[in-house]
Amino acid sequence: MGRSLSMAARVWVAVAVVLVLVHLVAQLVGAEDLARVTQWTLMPAFAAVVVTATRWPRGHVVAWTLVALGFSWLGDLVPSLVGEDAAFLVMVGFFLLAQVAYVVAFAPLVRRSVVHTRPVLLLPYAVVLVVLVALCAPGADALLVPVAVYGGVLVAMAVLATGLGRLATVGGAVFVVSDGLIALEAFVPWWDLAGQGFWVMLTYTVGQGLLAAAVIGRNVAERQAPEPRPVRTYAQRPPIPDNVVALV
Description:
The chain has helices spanning 7-29, 32-53, 59-77, 84-106, 114-117, 122-140, 144-161, 166-187, 196-224, 243-247. The protein is an all-alpha fold.
């Protein structure tokens, strides 16, 4: 896919990679202000990559992926602009909308996903959902139902992402890990992961990046597919008469 990217797309890929690296380093060294500001720029850079790397007509999957990236950006940005008490709920709300947008994006590919191709693989996704909700339940209290709903939509996104191939399959799974880490920190008292912010953002950016790459790859492959040869008809080229008819 790399050779088929436009120069603008390659520039935006480089910008996105630099922003991700700067942000992750800021997370590691505890530079909170730099981490906050660079986090606001990540999803716009990813969206720019998708826009410049895909070809018109972009279609349903690309359009809804951009919507998902837009809601993800709001989930990164808006919590910093509201009170601390509301920040977590605002973040979860926007990321729930992002996951719904991804579900809408990938739903047309359900017949290519494990839902139809290998239903037995739905079991690990179900186990992850049940375990995550069970761990969060004691600390979630009144938020248990929203947590379960969010977890269900998140896992549905990961399942449907398998319809785009291996990149999206890994991307969806890594995204589940990222949001799972956030849930564990918020609702499980004994959870204490060193470098929590770094691991959340590492899995978040890798997950989003792989999903974007899979969507771009699908778009590029479709737009490069050779056009079918036209079927010749008698109206286009009349049949050659045999010798007997020609003599008559």
